[in-house]
Amino acid sequence: MALVLRLLPLLVGTALLAVAQPVITPGASSLPNGVTGQPYAYAFGATGGAAPYTFRVVSGGLPSGLTLASGGVLNGTPATAFNGSFSIEVRDAANATSTRTFALRIYSQLSIVTVGFQSTPFGSNFSQCLAAQGGTVVDGASNGTWNIVGGSLPPGLTLVNQSPNCGPLGNRSAELTGITTAVGSYPFTLQVNDTLGQVAQRQYTFTVLTTGPIVVTPTQLSFTCQVGGLCTTGAVGVNINSGGGGIITGLTIAVVSPGGNWLRVTNLNTSTTP
What we know:
Layout: H1 2-20, E1 23-25, E2 34-35, E3 40-43, E4 45-47, E5 54-60, E6 66-68, E7 73-76, E8 82-91, E9 97-107, E10 111-112, E11 120-121, E12 125-129, E13 132-133, E14 145-151, E15 157-160, E16 175-179, E17 184-193, E18 199-209, E19 214-217, E20 239-242
Parallel strand pairs: 2-9, 11-18
Antiparallel strand pairs: 1-4, 3-7, 5-8, 6-7, 8-9, 10-13, 12-16, 14-17, 15-16, 17-18, 19-20
């Protein structure tokens, strides 16, 4: 019986010591996401032990621009993107301590990186994928949702989200696509949203030209002629096309011959293909 009486206070004391240790809250090990250039604040707390509590980082590193105050408030303005973890220690008034590790993700600011759109001839097929960076778009372009929020696209063009032409499934961006059907300049504003609620906008002007560069094939024709005689070649096929696939609205044909203007074209027949 004497042996039991000696052990009982020791066991009770050990149990009380375990209960008295402070524990860092919250229970979740992942902190809310942040964004570079935007203020961030999060308050840690503690339960158990004896107040007041003091907090400090004991391993890992905080994102650049954030600091942890001794009272447990993590705040500041993140300067760079971050995806990592760090460990925090809490110490109570009785010098009892405990440590927990937390994960934190800081995203860069969302922005549209598509610079512009090349001027395109009337009647041309057009296709261009759109690009954004930052925000949750870094986890997959499919996280970006695109819209026209000002102005209008040229007639015949449409904005397609999650285009199969712009990346593999699960990582697709949007596409501007269609056939230009009206000549002119069309200002519009593109907007992209990510899952963090970030919004980025950029203004553009899309120009539809009357026609593309003229392409003549073949570029040279050869003849065998006698001095003072006629050069008879028969029918010669020459193709004149709009290099951009547009419609040629006006055309003047001039023939230039070396050594003087001695060459004449007769029986000129033309045909067009839409």
